[in-house]
Write a structure and sequence with these properties.
The complex is a heterodimer of chains A (887) and B (119). With 887 residues, chain A is an alpha+beta fold. The longest helix of chain A is centred in the last third of the chain and has 44 residues. In chain A, 53% of the residues lie in helices and 15% in strands. A three-stranded antiparallel β-sheet of chain B has the order 1-3-2. Chain B starts with 11 loop residues before the first helix and ends with a helix. Classes of the chains: A alpha+beta (887), B alpha+beta (119). Chains A and B meet through helix 1, helix 2 and helix 4 of A and helix 2, helix 3, strand 3 and helix 4 of B.
Chain lengths: 887, 119
């Protein structure tokens, strides 16, 4: 209790220092007056009495001073004093402060941004989901193989299976199903396609998500779901201006009216990263025309997420799921054989599966850590230099009574202030970087900065300040007070520690590693992108015409044929074709062929792409005809079945390209199909895949139902202007008002996402390589300048003894060259190893690509030379008299 | 000029004297200095200035507390009084002091006895 009173007294004095001063003044005045009265009583006169009173009291100033020293919370007050002193000092030395803070902004900012990305991608629980720890993805796994890799691939669930799990497995307290699909909002020319999530009606309950406005779906029978939609927060702002009367309004989705019943919270997108604009009940599929999708055991289209029964571990739940699935398969003999291996993954573990272990974010964190280290090395060097220049100041402080610990504390406060300023600027940098992410086709990771990232930033700042400031502070506090104060001029003591030189060598090495790999990725990206320009994909448009379900097949075919005629007639169109399959987009199939066709043993795996295309396809795409003929309008359902193959296929058959023409392949049960032509190779899924065999069937000879809905229009424009897209849209809408939606996309845009990995790698390495290099250059300059300053006396002597300018220049440049050479050697060695690690992600360029390495080496040499030159110049101009006198 | 290293041991005898002076009842700073002076029969002349930092130290340790009260002449003065912890500390330290003095005295007394031959 009394302790508390004591503390209260301390706090009061600390928080209201002026009040404490006033009280003391009043107290002392009272004391002096009482003493004066006593002196008066003892017989002294007025003035004399007062004088005697003051004498008896002693020094008022000292009392006040002692009082102030003892009161309050000295530790905090001292820190506050340190802080103010540090701020003043930094403001006075603006050049140093600017350099140090900018360096730290880059270092800490880069790390903060990287951490934000890694956190958002890998660790952050999904936004707006309540109690994410108890929520799991329920996955059905099937073994998969591609490119020699094997893993367990998650596959979709069917609705009846979901019902079995929800009601019969006894494993889940609640279980929801969902699936992402695009829906067309509106109609006609203003129609847009937006991502929508179809969910079971208990979704909100499972996600424990609230509604920003209105409500979510009410749990119940899915088949009786109303035509209700919940819109996303962004959509609410974008399209409805955030107006609160959006509830009850109608949205037309793929031709069906839905009522808006609620708005989702900000940033909510379920448990995946894909953006979602609309939430619909799964029962909406019935309204879209898929009447049996909720009953078909063999239609797989859903993902599941749920919360296990209280107390049940995910493993036990998973085994219950597996058992339920196995039982379902047994009871339904016409269900396809399927895996019954199931698992439960927490929704917070994003890349736990091995289907896509994307190491890019973790690489990013590693690179930014390197950049931060470089930045720290620079700032440490700067602090060393500054400490050396302030020797006198520390000596005086020590003489007046500051302890060594006090000086170290004060200097650490300085570096902490620098680091916090750096962190503040770094946060701004990270925010800006977050806005730029969409340029790299990375999903928007809003919000990039949240509390965790902020805490990380502050922690990094504190660690940095200690890491950077401790050694210089300890070094600076070690002053020789006597000799320091005795000398007439301010002395600057330098030490020739090797540490700083080593730091610079490391900086140069690290930045070389980054720059070399940046160069390699730049070339890779160029090579990959040149593929695009080879086919002039920016002049090739893919036109998709979407119709509501239930549209008759013949009508679809008729309309699309008419569309082809109309579009081909446009003056801006060079050529056009109808096709079911388009590379990088849709309709691509793979089939397994009888190995005997290729003259291979019976157990060999022989596959080929298969595409259904129309007349004019090859011409429009730009593939050369090597032998025979292309698909023509005369190839119809009632004529002889034919195919065209590509050169790779012909090679697979054995023999020359021309030999393939005329061969009859036993692809059907009743008779064979004749090859009528051979075209050149091309790529279908990956811009850098090897040429694979492919077969082209006339789409008229395919199964009409499947063909008609997916038939696309390929259009080759005369030049790469975007006006044609609008024209096409208008023409087609005018042609058939029943058309729900027309999408026109240049092939180059379809390709863009495929280039993303290279683009991302290139940007990261280039950006950080440049930053690291800049920092290393500054560091190099700093160290050489420091060395020159340290050796001023020696240089003065040399000059006085007759050393020529060239000699001095050579001396200093030699210092810089030594450091740079050591750094370069280390860096090139390291770059070699790193590039070998990244080799499989590069394209068309060897890890030891000579031009890249040469360019980087020359760059480093040039900059090192330039950085040293400035100091060398200064060294040559040293006035021997001044230099010697200062010793 | 060294600063106070905060410990729980009474710093010097000044703190002990202040606590003792406050034992009968509250008093203001000037009064305390007079009491110490008179109580020691003039032997101890407190450096009056050092009284106030000592008072603040004791207050921050929670052994005394202060409040502004009117004096007999209706002037305002800051009065100090013992807290419970202060009373306890006073008891302990007084006992310690007594033990210390007794020890010293017994040595001195023994020496005296040896000198004068008295037992």
């Amino acid at each position: 209790m009394s302790r508390w009173k004591g503390l209260r007294a301390r706090l009061r004095a600390w928080l209201r220092p002026r009040r404490a001063d006033q009280e003391l003044e009043e107290e002392l005045r009272f004391h002096i007056e009482m003493e004066t009265s006593r002196q008066l009583r003892d017989g002294l006169s007025g003035a004399e009495a007062r004088r005697r009173a003051l004498l008896t009291f002693g020094s008022v100033d000292r009392t006040v001073e002692e009082h102030r020293d003892v009161r309050g919370v000295p530790f905090l007050e001292r820190r506050w004093r340190d802080l103010r002193y540090a701020a003043r000092g930094l403001r006075a030395d603006a050049g140093f402060t600017l350099a140090a803070v900018l360096t730290l902004v880059l270092g800490i900012g880069a790390n903060t941004a990287a951490f934000g990305v890694v956190d958002a991608l890998l660790y952050r629980p999904p936004a707006a989901v309540g109690e994410p720890d108890g929520l799991y993805r329920v996955r059905l796994l099937t073994p998969w193989e591609e490119d020699g890799r094997r893993w367990q691939q998650p596959v979709w669930w069917s609705y009846p299976l979901y019902e079995d799990l929800r009601d019969g497995s006894g494993a889940f307290a609640s279980l929801a199903a969902y699936r992402l699909r695009p829906v067309i909002v509106g109609r006609g020319e203003s129609a847009r396609e937006l991502p929508a999530l179809e969910v079971t009606r208990n979704y909100a309950e499972v996600m424990r998500v609230r509604a920003e406005l209105g409500r979510w779906f009410v749990p119940g029978d899915e088949r009786a779901a109303g035509a209700e939609v919940v819109i996303g927060y962004d959509l609410w702002q974008r399209q409805f201006g955030g107006s609160r009367d959006v509830l009850g309004r109608t949205l037309e989705l793929s031709g069906v009216p839905f009522e808006i019943i609620g708005v989702a919270p900000r940033h909510f997108r379920g448990i995946d990263l894909d953006p979602v604009d609309l939430w619909l009940p799964v029962g909406a599929e019935l309204r879209f025309g898929s009447t049996d999708v909720l009953d078909a055991r063999n239609t797989f289209w859903l993902w599941l997420a749920g919360r296990p029964v209280d107390g049940m571990t995910p493993e036990v739940a998973a085994s219950r799921v597996s058992a339920t699935v196995a039982a379902g398969v047994r009871e339904n003999p016409d269900a396809p054989a399927m895996s019954s291996l199931a698992d439960l993954i927490p929704v917070t573990a994003r890349f736990a599966s091995d289907s896509d272990p994307s190491p890019v974010p973790v690489w990013l964190l590693g690179i930014t850590a390197i950049v931060l280290l470089i930045a720290c090395a620079n700032v440490a060097n700067l602090l060393f230099a500054r400490g050396a220049a302030r020797c006198r100041e520390f000596a005086i402080r020590a003489a007046v009574g500051a302890s060594r610990g006090g000086i170290v504390a004060q200097l650490l406060t300085e570096s902490l202030l620098l680091a916090l300023l750096g962190a503040a600027g770094g946060l701004g940098l990270a925010l800006a970087a977050g806005r730029l992410l969409p340029l790299l086709d990375v999903p928007a990771l809003e919000p990039l900065i949240d509390v965790r990232v902020l805490a990380f930033s502050v922690a990094v700042a504190v660690l940095t300040s200690v890491f950077v400031g401790l050694m210089p502070a300890v070094r600076a506090s070690r002053t020789d007070v006597e000799s320091e104060l005795k000398s007439a001029t301010p002395r600057v003591t330098y030490d020739r520690s090797r540490v700083r030189g080593a730091l610079t060598v490391l900086q140069v090495a690290l930045s070389i590693i980054l720059l070399v790999n940046a160069g390699l990725f730049i070339r890779s990206l160029r090579n990959v992108e040149s593929i695009e320009s080879q086919f002039e994909y920016d002049r090739l448009l893919v036109v998709t015409m979407r119709y509501p379900r239930g549209e008759a097949t013949d009508r679809l075919l008729r309309i699309k044929r008419e569309a082809l005629e109309r579009i081909s007639a446009l003056p801006a169109v060079e050529s056009a074709a109808l096709t079911r399959a388009a590379p990088f987009y849709a309709g691509l199939g793979r089939v397994r062929l009888d190995p005997a066709i290729a003259g291979q043993p019976a157990d060999a795996l022989v596959t080929s792409y298969t595409l259904d295309v129309g007349p004019g396809y090859f011409e429009t795409i730009g593939m050369p005809l090597l032998a025979g003929r292309a698909i023509e309008a005369s190839d119809r359902a009632d004529t002889r079945p034919v195919i065209v193959v590509n050169a790779a296929f012909a090679r697979m058959l054995g023999g020359g390209i021309a030999d393939a023409v005329g061969r009859c392949l036993p692809l059907r049960r009743d008779g064979c199909i004749e090859i009528v032509g051979v075209v050149g190779d091309s790529r279908f899924l990956d811009p850098i895949e090897r040429a694979e065999p492919a077969m082209y069937h006339p789409f008229e000879q395919g199964e009409p139902g499947w063909i008609a809905r997916g038939l696309l229009l390929l259009v080759r424009a005369r030049d790469a202007t975007s006006a044609l897209a609008g024209t096409i849209r208008r023409e087609l809408v005018a042609l058939d008002p029943a058309l729900q939606y027309v999408e026109v996309m240049p092939m180059s845009e379809l390709l863009r996402p495929r280039f993303q990995p290279w683009r991302v790698a290139m940007v990261i390495f280039t950006l950080f390589g440049a930053v690291a290099f800049l920092l290393a250059a500054v560091g190099l300059y700093g160290v050489v300048a420091y060395l020159v300053a340290a050796r001023r006396a020696e240089l003065g002597i040399r000059i006085a003894l007759g050393a020529g300018r060239a000699r001095i220049l050579r001396l200093v440049l030699g210092e810089g060259a030594r450091l740079a050479a050591a750094g370069a050697a280390l860096g090139l060695f390291g770059a070699f190893w790193v590039s070998r690690l990244l080799e499989n992600r590069m394209y068309g360029v060897r890890p030891t690509d000579p031009p890249t390495w040469l360019a980087v080496t020359l760059l480093v040499a040039a900059v090192a030379f330039g950085a040293s030159w400035v100091s060398a110049e200064r060294a040559a101009r040293v006035n021997p008299n001044l230099a010697l006198r200062s010793e | 000029m060294a600063h106070e290293r905060g410990t729980d041991v009474l710093r010097g005898t000044l703190d002990l004297l202040i606590l003792q002076t406050l034992k009968p009842g509250p008093m203001h700073g000037w009064g305390i200095s007079q009491l110490i002076q008179s109580g020691s029969r003039g032997v101890l002349e407190v450096n009056q200035g050092s009284l106030y930092p000592a008072l603040q130290r004791l207050e921050q340790r929670g052994w005394i507390e202060s409040s502004w009260e009117p004096t007999e002449n209706n002037r305002r003065a800051k009065y100090y009084r013992l807290t419970r912890a202060g009373r306890r500390a006073l008891g302990e330290e007084t006992a310690n002091w007594r033990r210390y003095v007794d020890a010293v005295e017994s040595i001195l007394g023994a020496a005296e006895a040896a000198r004068t031959g008295r037992a």
